[in-house]
């Protein structure tokens, strides 16, 4: 009889302990869920998007630095450039569905060139597939020649492919030099100053006849210490310098 009483008492104690432990576990689970909900935040991205289809007015585009243009705006800038240089221009890549060709430019002799424009950051180079697409797509527009215009550069394999299929290409500092010599594209001074580093002063107006290896003119700059040197006018696309 005594054994039976102790068994009943033990069962009651165990049930009480189980009742205390189980709610505490539920509370812990609820707390962990609430913590997860609080930790989740919606991603915010205020950075400039080059791939946007936004295209501002021609007046605005002519004042924008290349690193502040969308792909559509870069194509529009090239359209204005080629038209002023005597070409008839057909904008075939408007809206992003270019099939490998953005512009078809026709010279005074009627010779057609298929143009692919790539407004890329310096580290984002044109891949070999872009060259191949242009070579195949130019036939759809009855073009004999082809040209890639990029704000960055081509990868090694892309250069080999371009040379093999006689695809001309303008890149980096050469693009900047051609557009500046045109005279109508004048990037805002405010944009240029934001691109300078702490070690260098804003670009000086003292332009020389000295040429950079990329083809652009060299301008006089001052280091933080005050010493003068020649720097490429296409900075920051090209960072080469020369001693004065």
Question: What are the key terms here?
Answer:
244 residues, alpha+beta, Trna Endonuclease, Chain: A, domain 1, 7 helices, 38% helix
Characterization of the model:
The chain is an alpha+beta fold. Among the domains are: 58-182, Trna Endonuclease, Chain: A, domain 1, CATH 3.40.1350.10; 207-243. Helix content is 38%, strand content 18%. It contains 7 helices and 9 strands; from the N terminus they run H-H-H-E-E-E-H-E-H-E-H-H-E-E-E-E. It has helices spanning 2-39, 58-61, 71-84, 128-137, 156-164, 172-182, 189-194, and strands spanning 88-91, 103-106, 112-118, 145-150, 168-171, 207-211, 217-222, 228-232, 241-243. The strands form 2 sheets. Strands 1-2-3-4-5 form a 5-stranded mixed β-sheet, sandwiched between helices. It has a 4-stranded antiparallel β-sheet with strand order 6-7-8-9, with no helix packed on it. A hairpin with a 5-residue loop joins strand 2 and strand 3 (112-118). Helix 4 (128-137) packs parallel to helix 5 (156-164). The longest helix is centred in the N-terminal third of the chain and has 38 residues, at 2-39. The N and C termini lie far apart (110 Å). Mean pLDDT is 79; it is low at 191-207. Keywords: Membrane, Transmembrane, Transmembrane helix. This is Restriction system protein. The chain crosses the membrane at residues 6-23.
């Amino acid at each position: 009889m005594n054994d039976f009483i102790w068994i009943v008492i033990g069962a009651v104690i165990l049930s009480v302990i189980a009742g205390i432990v189980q709610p505490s576990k539920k509370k812990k689970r609820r707390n962990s869920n609430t913590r997860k909900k609080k930790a989740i935040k919606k991603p915010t991205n205020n950075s400039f998007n080059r791939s946007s289809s936004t295209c501002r007015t021609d007046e605005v585009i002519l004042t924008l630095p290349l690193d502040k243009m969308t792909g559509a705006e870069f194509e529009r800038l090239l359209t204005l450039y080629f038209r002023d240089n005597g070409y008839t221009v057909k904008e075939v890549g408007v809206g992003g569905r270019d099939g490998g060709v953005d512009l078809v430019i026709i010279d005074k002799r009627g010779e057609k060139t298929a143009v692919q424009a790539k407004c890329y950051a310096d580290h984002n180079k044109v891949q070999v597939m872009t060259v191949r697409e242009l070579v195949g797509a130019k036939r759809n527009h009855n073009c004999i020649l082809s040209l890639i215009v990029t704000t960055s550069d081509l990868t090694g394999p892309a250069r080999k492919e371009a040379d093999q299929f006689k695809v001309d290409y303008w890149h980096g500092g050469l693009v900047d030099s051609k557009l500046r010599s045109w005279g109508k594209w004048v990037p805002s001074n405010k944009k240029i100053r934001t691109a300078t580093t702490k070690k260098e002063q804003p670009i000086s107006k003292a332009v020389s006849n000295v040429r950079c290896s990329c083809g652009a003119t060299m301008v006089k700059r001052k280091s933080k210490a005050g010493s003068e040197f020649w720097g490429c006018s296409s900075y920051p696309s090209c960072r080469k310098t020369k001693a004065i």
